[in-house]
Amino acid sequence: MGQTVTFKRPDGKDCNGYLATPAGGDPKAPGVVVIQEWWGLNDQIKGVADQLAGLGYRALVPDLYRGKVTLDTAEAQHMMTNLNFADAATQDVRGAAQYLKQSGAKVGVVGFCMGGALTVLAALYVKEANACSSWYGFPPEQAGDVKTITVPLQLHLAEKDAAFSPDNARALEAKLKEGKVPFESHWYDAGHAFGNETGPNHHAQHAKSAWDRTTAFFAKHLK
């Protein structure tokens, strides 16, 4: 279903990614940039892209770690810490959005954990994005003024998130309200990464609710 593609970043450098396309391969189908968790471009995140392709989207996962993938938490922490978030958002993610946008279709962004933080940054810095859905992740305050976001933004937040503090998530909501950002947020009685079916905090019911909300959100804004 999916294949590796190379696309240009705004700065002209190449970036690879995993592209899943709908059956029949409609080149004008709406696009979704899918942003990995801190593990890298693994089979789990490819599976998310495949699911979106099954719903009629061209889904592209940019390879932010340039081929590195891990199952080890310490190594994932290290790779995430070494990632230049501003570069990833304004170059890799934006380049992926531009690649999908070539056909004139609308483009969404969805990301999980570290990718959730990058999704909020995409709402700020990726002008090509038409809708952004962030799962249990958001950037540090100094990364940009979220009050200036104009694109529809959806947040999925975990009440028991040990990686991204619920207090900080509420502060983010307050800022978005202050800026009159077109956003919606959904809270789940679950731990961090409850949507990852391979992880220890997976919660099938909440994962399904969040997925249904994400796909309805994209259907409304992208199709």
As a whole number of angstroms, the C-alpha radius of gyration is 16 Å
Number of strands: 8
Shape verdict: globular
Distance between the termini: 21 Å
Compute the average pLDDT. 97
Beta-strand portion reads: 15-25%
Could you explain how this protein is built, in words?
By secondary structure, the chain is α/β, with parallel strands linked by helices. The protein has a single domain, classed as Alpha/Beta hydrolase fold, catalytic domain (Rossmann fold, 3-Layer(aba) Sandwich), CATH 3.40.50.1820. The protein is 37% helix and 23% strand. It contains 6 helices and 8 strands. It has helices at residues 43-54, 73-82, 85-101, 114-125, 166-178, 204-222; strands at 2-8, 14-20, 31-35, 58-62, 107-112, 131-135, 153-160, 183-191. An 8-stranded mixed sheet has the order 1-2-4-3-5-6-7-8, with helices on both faces. Helix 5 links the parallel strand 7 (153-160) and strand 8. It starts with a strand and ends with a helix. The model has no long low-confidence stretch (mean pLDDT 97).
Map the helices and strands.
Layout: E1 2-8, E2 14-20, E3 31-35, H1 43-54, E4 58-62, H2 73-82, H3 85-101, E5 107-112, H4 114-125, E6 131-135, E7 153-160, H5 166-178, E8 183-191, H6 204-222
Parallel strand pairs: 3-4, 3-5, 5-6, 6-7, 7-8
Antiparallel strand pairs: 1-2, 2-4
Helix pairs in contact: 3-4
